[in-house]
Every structure is written in structure tokens, then in C-alpha cells.
Amino acid sequence: LTLPDTPIEMVRIDFDKMETVVANLLENAIRYSPAGSVIEIIIAENQIRIINPTRGSVHIPTALDQEFKPSRELSSGLGMGLWLCSNICKLHRASLTVEQKADQVIASIHFS
After folding, report:
1. pLDDT tens-digit readout, 70-97
2. Which of 56, 63, 80, 110 is the 20 to 30 A CA-CA neighbour of 20?
3. Which three-class secondary structure state does DSSP give residue 22?
4. Strands (E), 6-103
């Protein structure tokens, strides 16, 4: 957990709903990272970022826009997590982006 050196602006949120978003993103990071990986959580300037290594390519492009994304991998999830997270963020006037860069997935919540 990395905390910023500069003060954080206050943002009003429904704690339970945003807890669901962060928990889902962390669960995904743990699930799709190689064993023994380090997952980085950064809280800075109206943003929460979760960065995790991956075990190869991750198909993300439409996951935030589709209600159901069937997984080709064995998964205990329902395939709706990122879509639900994205919509909860929108209700809080925030945005969720998920992208893969090289061998990392970066999930970012940006508060307005």
C-alpha cells in the first residue's frame, strides 16, 4: 500500500458499494497473478490503482461494457464483476479503467 505525500481530496461515496468494487478488483488481481506475486495498491490524487502481474495475455476490452463475460478459464466467479464495478463507479461519478501493459494488469478508479 503506497500513500501519497500530498493531501487527498475528500470524495463522498457509498462505502459498502466502493468496498465491493475494491474487493472485486483485489480478488481478480489475486486470482490471475502467478503464485507468490506482489500486488501493488496505490492511492493518490483522487485515484485508486491496483497493479498485478499476469500469467500471460488477459482479454479485457469489453469486460467493462458487457453484463456477462463467459470465461474460458476455470473460475468461481459469475463473469459480471468488472461490469458491476464499472457501473458502481459511474454511480459515484468515477470511472474504472482496466488495461494490460506488458505482463501487468492495471485497474484504476478515477474520482471526479
Report:
1. 555 545 555 578 888 999 999 999 999 9
2. 56
3. helix
4. 40-43, 47-53, 94-101
List pLDDT tens digits, range 33-69. 999 999 999 998 889 999 999 877 776 655 556 555 5
Q: How many residues does the chain have?
A: 112
Query: Is this prediction's pTM over 0.90?
Result: no
Q: What residues form DSSP beta bridges with 43?
A: 48
Decide which of 44 and 109 is more confident. Answer: 109
Which residues have C-beta within 8 Å of that of residue 33, sequence separation ≥ 6? 39, 52, 53, 54, 55
Q: Which amino acid appears at position 20 of this protein?
A: T
Question: Cell match 467493462: residue?
Answer: 64
User: Which DSSP string do the residues of 38-64 spell out, in sequence order?
Assistant: --EEEE-SSEEEEEEE-SS----TTTT
Cell of 104: 501487468
Instruction: Give the separation between CA 52 and CA 38, rounded to whole angstroms.
Output: 7
